[in-house]
Specification:
Blueprint (H helix, E strand, L loop, with lengths): L4 H41 L3 H14 L6 H18 L3 H19 L4 H16 L3 H19 L4 H16 L3 H18 L5 H16 L3 H16 L8 H11 L37
Bound molecules: zinc ion.
The site of zinc ion has 5 residues, from loops.
Length: about 290
């Protein structure tokens, strides 16, 4: 047996050389994957969902070429799931979010912000798929974990709470949603600012919950405040979801009239401002 030190040095030199030779194409594959992910995400932001899907699919198909594929794959899975969500392809979005969750659980364990964010995204998809009880149960757990780990006023905790209240509205439990939404809205205004998409979305949900409970005057105040914030933003600063929220809310302007509380007609067939991708009358507009 030749176990001389020289042999070992020669051996490790060979490993270094081999690693360097392999390293260059792998580095390239990695930068290419990151570039495609970036481009896909930009396309999604601009609303070109077909282009986004193409790029992100490619990254997911090729992650096995990478040395450390998990973070790249996770990022691409998450972005593609959001593309499917925006394109209202909820069943496909659910599958990707589930794969993303099981991958990141292996990487981070159960109590990590990544897990919370992926779970909230999954719950949003479940709400769109009319599986609000599943979503609500998941969000209850996530909101508690997130509050423990990140704090009560952390944006992720607030998002979990707001979506939990959304599930409650969809399950005809608007009464329970109101205090949660009021607290969340106050914290989001502080933490994210009044004109942030999620703050405005929470305001819309509070408006709906109040209206469903017959509290018309308070509902109108919330709605008008929400509209004022939304229309004070210049068009060019809005991403696709905020533009959609603005369009959805502007079809509901008749809520501003004293007839508030009666069923709005013009907006009933338009997309729901909650971003579920469903018609208002089949989503938060169900009474
Ligand atoms: Zn809705």
């Amino acid at each position: 047996m030749d176990a001389s030190p020289g042999g070992r040095i020669a051996g490790s030199c060979a490993v270094i050389v081999a690693a360097t030779i392999i390293h260059i194409p792998i580095q390239k594959a990695r930068s290419h994957a990151l570039l495609l992910t970036e481009r896909g995400d930009t396309a999604r932001w601009l609303g070109d969902l077909a282009a986004a899907e193409k790029d992100l699919q490619k990254v997911i198909e090729r992650t096995s070429d990478l040395i450390d594929p998990v973070p790249v794959r996770l990022n691409a899975l998450n972005n593609l799931a959001l593309v499917y969500h925006n394109a209202h392809r909820f069943a496909e979005a659910e599958l990707l979010h589930r794969e993303e969750l099981s991958l990141s659980r292996k990487l981070y364990g159960d109590d990590h912000e990544e897990i919370f964010v992926s779970s909230i995204n999954l719950a949003m998809v479940l709400n769109s798929l009319e599986r609000a009880s599943e979503a609500r149960e998941l969000l209850d757990d996530i909101a508690k974990r997130s509050e423990r780990l990140l704090g009560a006023k952390h944006p992720t905790t607030l998002l979990a709470l707001s979506e939990y209240a959304h599930s409650s509205i969809l399950l005809s439990r608007a009464q329970e949603a109101i205090p949660i939404l009021e607290r969340t809205l106050a914290s989001e205004s502080d933490v994210r600012g009044e004109r942030h998409y999620y703050t405005m979305r929470t305001a819309f949900l509070l408006f709906r919950a109040l209206l469903l409970c017959g509290r018309r005057e308070t509902a109108r105040k919330v709605f008008e405040h929400c509209l004022r914030q939304l229309f004070s933003l210049p068009d060019t600063t809005l991403d696709q979801t905020t533009r959609e929220l603005r369009t959805a809310l502007s079809t509901m302007v008749e809520f501003r009239e004293p007839s508030l509380g009666e069923q709005p007609k013009a907006g009933r067939n338009n997309p729901c401002p909650c971003g579920s991708g469903k018609k208002f009358k089949r989503c938060c507009g169900r009474s």
